[in-house]
Amino acid sequence: MAKAATHRLPSLGALRGRLLTLALACLTVVLLAGCGAPPWNNPYPEGQAGENILYGAFTERPKHLDPVRSYSSNEYSFIAQIYEPPLQYHFLKRPYTLVPLTAEAVPEPTHLDADGNPLPADADPERIAVTEYLIRIQPGIRYQPHPAFAQDADGRYRYHDLSPARIAGLNELSDLPETGTRELTAEDYVYQIKRLAVPWLHSPIAGLMGEHILGFEAFSERLRETAPEPVGGERPFFDLRRYDFPGVEVVDRYSYKVRIDGRYPQFVYWLAMPFFAPMPWEAEALTSQPGMADNNITLDWYPVGTGPFMLTENNPNLRMVLARNPNFHGETYPTEGMPGDREAGLLDAAGEPLPFIDRAVYSLEKESIPYWNKFLQGYYDTSGISSDAFDQAVKFDAAGEAGLTADMREKGIKLSTAVQTSIWYMGFNMADDVVGGDSERARLLRQAISIAVDFGEFISIFANGRGMQGQGPLPPGIFGHREGEAGINPYVFDWEHGRAQRKPIEEARALLAQAGYRDGRDPETGRPLSIYYEAMDAGPDGKARLNWMRKQFAKLGIELIVRATDYNRFQEKMREGTGQVFMWGWNADYPDPENFFFLLYGPNRKIDGGENAANYSNPELDRLFERMKNMPDGPERQAVIDRMTEIVRHDAPWSFGFYPESFSLHHQWVENVKPNLMANNTLKYLSLEPGIREDKRAAWNPPVLWPIGAVVLLLVLGALPAIVIARRRERSAAL
């Protein structure tokens, strides 16, 4: 018979040795945890500990990193640190103020008549045929290291004429190992402005610039007619340097002119946006080679600029990394700011060279809860506040002022708030027979509804208190906005106890009765007045907001009929002028009152193709707008704005809703934090104390050791039967 297999139990000594080894291993882990080892849950490489790196997150992958196409805040978070337009906004000053970036000065406009003769600054706008801006850039500015500039010993570009096989073998830009650089020139700015007119690049501001830059549309059409057709879906490099454009001209190596058709004073603000950053032709020549787009080697993926940072890792499904540009020309921290800035420590770094950090690592976080938890653990240096985490972070005092909860203060977390340069408003379609028109009846109806719809309550319920009730079309931070009692809308608010108080609902009902709708009833039918509300809240999340809006109108006895739809259909209704009442918003492109009042300018009505969604027109306001938009900031312009504001308050084409307020958090080791809602290039101002961060991370992320003890205990208990059997066998053998 075959002998049965036997399983030999380990000896008692061997079992004891194994248990001792396990205990020593566990003891070693515990000792390491208590001897300065990094937290076990640290998501970053151990070698980064203590480095001057800012850690953040992004929630939506950027689609366009080419400044000709990018027009989204999540994209600007990256490219504004890389590209440098000639101007920027002062980091600390309010109202928002333009200052030079690469330019030597903020350019002053020169006005010319139809014969090209200069006109005085106060010339009649009717005589101004062309306005010229001469921009002089600083010499000595150089681009970041980039393969597009790499040259061989004979001065030929290494990578501008690659073979199809070489291109097919590329996975990323770093597969082209040689890099170079060169000086920034005026021609690079001119090249980029020409790119705005290129039809196949589809710049989102091409239509607007076509209205203002001299010869823009004709130049765009010329490019359309002369450019070669795409080959295999890709368009070969088209050198824009060979084509003249009357709207922009290179004067010399460091100077260029932009010519505006007529007068457009707000153009200078566009010179602070990435659209007008420089683009070296070499970068387009490199990335336009056939096959490059198949490997994502495009300007939409790999930006190239002169700014303080450059993109060293672009993995939008995981991580984006900005690193210090070794060729950065240098800039210093501001030496002046607003009252209170010095006391807040915002001028402690005055005059010091920028940037302060070496790298910024941004990780993709699609869900708000993991993002929030990692911020609380110290693994992200800054954070917004989602609705889910708001009560955990923020509380309001009796006066309605926002502050941090005790838990946040205990962690040393700091809160920054700022009213955004934007407005959410409830609009009345002035082309409608019921709520529109300039009749006294319709005006009283609009004023009554404006009182009844309590946007203070809306802010509290749906925005976690993050907003300021609107008093007019201009939010804080925009020239012309008035604070305090002088700034309230007297048709909707009273000034009581040092603050604006919404008028009681009884006054709204009295206005409604004067309009002929006593108790909210239509005198022609005797039934409650029905008003249609066009909503873009078609999804389930909008149900509570729509129910709230119905209740606001019900205070007046008005039946609100909600017509909810998706945003595309909503926009179509606005263009056709078929709605009655709606909610919409506007975020400033630039900090000038013209950028808000043009939404109420008669010739700009939505039904005529403009942005005046209320289709409002008032001849006096239109005349004042034409005058105001060309005026410099000052008392005279303020007086005109005051009159315009009074007109729209009286006519009430809008109920002014609210100005949204941004809330952000940062840890105590992050310094020089001041919200700037117009500037996008503020990363260079932030500084860190990495040592404090490491200490806090260790304190906030202690190792949880009880699972190890539990495992050891289970192993010991599991080994006991074997030990008992082993002892019995040894005793039996001894006998």
What does this structure look like?
This protein is of the alpha+beta class and 735 residues long. It contains 21 helices and 27 strands. Strands 14, 17, 18, 19, 22, 23, 24 and 25 form an 8-stranded mixed β-sheet that branches. Strands 5-4-6-8-7 form a 5-stranded antiparallel β-sheet, with helices on one face. β15 and β16 (402-404) form a beta hairpin. α18 runs antiparallel to α19. The longest helix is centred in the C-terminal third of the chain and has 29 residues, at 706-734. It is globular.
Relevant terms:
alpha+beta, globular, 21 helices
What would a concise description of this structure say?
With 735 residues, the protein is an alpha+beta fold. Helix content is 30%, strand content 18%.
Write the layout of secondary structure elements.
Elements: H1 12-33, E1 53-58, H2 73-79, E2 87-89, E3 98-100, E4 109-112, E5 118-119, E6 130-136, H3 164-168, H4 186-196, H5 206-212, H6 216-226, E7 248-252, E8 255-261, H7 267-270, H8 281-287, E9 309-315, E10 319-324, E11 331-332, E12 353-354, E13 359-364, H9 368-376, E14 382-384, H10 387-393, E15 394-396, E16 402-404, H11 406-410, E17 414-419, E18 422-428, H12 440-452, H13 455-462, E19 467-469, E20 493-496, E21 499-502, H14 505-514, E22 530-535, H15 543-554, E23 559-564, H16 567-576, E24 581-587, H17 594-597, H18 619-628, H19 635-651, E25 654-666, E26 670-671, E27 687-688, H20 690-700, H21 706-734
Parallel strand pairs: 1-13, 22-23, 22-24
Antiparallel strand pairs: 2-3, 4-5, 4-6, 6-8, 7-8, 9-10, 10-13, 11-12, 14-25, 15-16, 17-25, 18-24, 18-25, 19-25, 20-21, 26-27
